[in-house]
Amino acid sequence: MDAMPDDWDVIVIGGGLAGVTAGIAAADADARVLILEKTADPGGSARLSGGSFAFAGTDLQQQQGIDDSPDLLREDLLTVGEGRNDPELVDLYVAEQLAAYEWLREIGVPFERVSLSSNQSRPRTHGTNAPRMFEAVQDAATGHPNITFIMESGADRLLRSGNRVNGVLAGGTAARELTAQSGVVLASGGFNRSKRLLQAFAPRFRDAPPLGGSGNTGDGILLGMALGADLVDMGYVKGTFGTSLPRDSAPPILLIAMYRGAVVVNVHGQRFVDESLSYKTIGDACLEQPGAVGFQVFDSHVMEQTRPDLTVNDFEGALERGYLQTADTVEDLAAKLRIDPPALADTISTYNADVRSGGDSRFGRSSLGNGVGEPPEVAAPPFYAYPCTTGLPSTYGGLHVDTAMRVIDVFEHPIPGLHAAGEVVGGFHGASYMSGSSLAKSVISGRVAGRCAAGIAQH
Fold first, then answer.
1. Which of 124, 147, 320, 368 has the greatest CB tally within 10 Å of its CB?
2. 204-260: pLDDT as tens digits
3. Is the pTM of this model over 0.85?
4. Are 269 and 344 in contact (CB under 8 A)?
């Protein structure tokens, strides 16, 4: 860092998907860009994610015979958000999402298949291998002559000249003032690893298992707040069902088999929720169960749908790494889980009878997810179970922005020179979340923030 110039056009705080995308967009506009990443490795939560992108109206959907459209995507996003999301940010996402999809493919991100995920009325999860996806994005940035990366260097404060943000104080004990002639982009992720911010805004999840990037400690929110930035959606933080239980020396994973046909039971072997609901809603229900523990129980037909390129559906990989239990009978599976075998066998038998009769007598489940797909019986051995709980992969509430990704202050005025992108941004998701919209939002908001920070007007 000692030999690095002090003067830049655009400084991006955060080297995850949103930050690197913002840096590329600004550099493509001929800006000299510095990306600061406080951890040793870039990628943040995106590199550790399930690799799901929510796009609508793509050629890949058409090839699979999926009837979807940008208009339906917009309708779904507003419905899922319960009308609490900013409609202008939703419109921006819808308008930019196909261009974002094509850009990702152009730089080498492969999307091979579309599948159904939480809160989608049509299958629109374009899955990809997350580490390889971020590697392609990072390669596009490191190969760009206008971009410089600095690892293990976070931002301590934002600097201003008058009321305009014009730089960053960075470097900790060896702090340096770095100027940004055009603008600064905050892209430092969420706050799921900050007990201080969780206690203030989402105390229910203060001790929930955190997933995602190790740097998600709310830095961008604090930097913005110090300048009077407004916050939105902080009251809508929700956990995600499907987070693995703590295991010695094993990292937590997120696995979601419900939307392929699994049923969810508690430690007594009883179902407690309609499995077709959002994994956020199921997560709330799981927190009310004994020990906040649930089990996703499924059979060989679901296992056959394993997808190594989509980590939340990598059932075989989870089995190989010891996250699943398996047995030839439901009773033997229950014994391994320390669940009463007759209780679990009765639950599965009742569920299967309901499937055959065309109705769920307990919770009214009628689809795999959000009205799409027919639930199958859990009847083909061997059987599998995934013990899990409600974790916190991300937070979604954050800085108030407009459609140019300018940060808005508490008096509803833009803070000159300051933009934001990715999970640090609030207002887009509203009260809930459509699977795949987080990674796509990071790319879309990053591209817009980078262009606008470099001085290209957003229309």
1. 124
2. 888 888 888 889 999 999 999 999 999 999 989 889 999 999 887 778 889 999 999
3. yes
4. yes
Q: How far apart are alpha carbons 334 and 344 in whole angstroms? A: 6
The candidate with the shortest Cα–Cα distance to 295, out of 230, 176, 157, 388, is 388
- Kindly state the tokens that stand for 37: 């990443």
Please give the backbone phi and psi of residue 279, each rounded to the nearest 5 degrees, phi first: -65, -15
